[in-house]
Amino acid sequence: MKKIFIYYSLTGNGDEVSKVFKKDGYDIKKIEIKKPLPKKFFFRMMTGGFKALIGYKEKITNFDIDIGKYDKIVIGSPIWNDRISTPIRTLLKQIDKKNIDFVLYSGSGKGERGIEFLKERYPKSKITIIKEPKKYKEELNKIKL
What DSSP string runs through 81-104? Predict the structure, then answer.
């Protein structure tokens, strides 16, 4: 069975999650955005949060995968302003599959709007939310492969 973990990571939390999937034999693909967010933490969080709030479609630069060859797809996204990140929102518009599971990582909050958004579009998906896996390594144990 071919498996892939596709994710976006701004602060390194997604990179920590990807290590779990890599150990289990998943192919790994990190999404990049065309225009980087500001470098200063405050402005980066404000910009990303605002873009998530308005449903902005972020331009991604390196998604060149034939998703049809994978049996299992897991997508990882940070939570921005209680929503999934804009690069992942853009990615989901490019993927025409409904059998996708999700791992959401959050610095604060529960991502309720992000979970609601995903459940509406992917009602059979498993959604796991973890808190700052870069800082709290034990959170990675919540991921069930």
Answer: TTEE-HHHHHHHHH---S-EEEEE
pLDDT band at 52 (very low <50, low <70, confident <90, very high): low
Show Cβ contacts of residue 142 under 8 Å, excluding neighbours closer than 6 positions.
128, 130
Domains of the chain, earliest start first: 3-142 (3.40.50.360)
Strand partners, 47: none
User: What is the distance between the alpha carbons of residues 73 and 107, in angstroms, rounded to a whole number?
Assistant: 24
Distance CA 9, CA 85 (A): 9
Rounded Cα distance, 132 and 135, in Å: 6
Identity of the amino acid at 73: I
| pTM score of the predicted model | 0.86
**Residue 28 corresponds to which amino acid?**
I
User: If you count them, how many residues does the chain have?
Assistant: 145
